[in-house]
Amino acid sequence: MTERLYYQHKLYECEARVVACVPCENGYTVTLDRTVIFPESGGQLPDTGFIGDARVLDAQESGDDVVHMCDKPLEVGADVVVKIDVEQRLDYTQQHTGEHIISGIISSMFGGTNVGFHMAKDYCTVDTDIVLSKEQLDIIELEANKAVRDNVAIITKTVDAAELENYTLRKKTKGLQGEVRIVFIGNVDSCTCCGTHCEYSGEVGAVAITDSMKYKQGTRIWFSCGERAIKEAQNNAKIVASIANRFSTGREEAYNAVVRQGDELSALKRELKKRTDMLFEYKASELVNGAESAGNAKIVVATLDEFNMQELKMLCEKIPQDKNLAVVLLSKVGENVFYQIKTGKNIKQNAKEICLVVNAMTGGKGGGRDDFAQGSCNSNLNVEETLCQLSAYLKKSLA
User: Fold this and answer.
1) E strands along 291-398, which residues?
2) What's the CATH fold of domain 3-84?
3) Where does residue 301 rank: exposed (0-12), middle (13-18), buried (19+ CB within 10 A)?
4) What pTM value is reported for the model?
5) Which of 339, 343, 342, 335 is nearest to 360 (CA)?
6) Which is the most buried residue in 22, 155, 204, 316, by most CB within 10 A?
7) Whole-angstrom Cα distance, residue 170 to residue 145?
8) Architecture of the domain spanning 90-244
9) Dihedral sign, CA of 337, 343, 349, 353?
């Protein structure tokens, strides 16, 4: 059984004896008789650090033991010094304590229950079973920081699982047996938890709710605490300052400047669409007026400059439906040649069949409906030569 020392506040180093060392896929698993290294548990990430000169990359629980994943082997029976990454422990402890504060406030003020907690190296989330508005989240953030400023003592108590019925707690994890750890944060929160926590709420530093979204039947909240919150605030300030500088305005006017530009861009897009429609209608009329005859059929075979697939389709759609008209349009853009095909119901070969012919001529791929088809091929194609071949083929086959 590993003696666990990581709950002792500010104990970041200890002496221990190596009990076992076994090779594993990414290094060695090392078991000690005692450790200050916190193993992944309760939603909290594991500590990293050193055992002697071996780097601890991970730590997990295995029954009554803590198993350390190390990059070097250690001699069984050797006495070693165990050290944790202090800055990382502080960060994880701040996030976990902050999560308790946020969850306690959500419960007491709005009756919501924490149904999920996830800690990553660069973000943390809390899932609640109720939908929270932006105004409510602002209140939660303010109350959480008030709890930090109050700097209340955070008290832990270890009891037998059978004694939990004697405590009124925000959260009691189901199925617990043996000794159970309860964490109390003043009148803000109380729940069963196996993670590490600050000694006083003030050590959390700051709590920032950075984002939220509706999740299942409730709300997912992104938050950060301590140095994470400060760095995120600094980054956001830089972004706002950059936007303000870009628009030659003050920070307080940056949002309005972005909105104005967005409105102007939307208006320009509407005008561009209107003018593009007019251009396509003119071009479609020009193509139809230049159609060649093949018996009772009329044929349009044309190449256009730098029309992408969507633009080529829009132009093809602008050509009026004519039961005796067959249209094949090609356009070369970068490394691709696109083609669109449209046919009336009196044309001997429908658009899908003509597309197969174009595929064979160009080595391209495409398909579609009887009245409309499309495809593309590699740009190594000689478009003008292919155009002549297609025109000759259609005149002969549709006459």
Assistant:
1) 292-294, 297-305, 325-333, 336-343, 365-368, 372-378
2) Elongation Factor Tu (Ef-tu); domain 3 (2.40.30)
3) buried
4) 0.77
5) 339
6) 204
7) 20
8) 2-Layer Sandwich (3.30)
9) positive
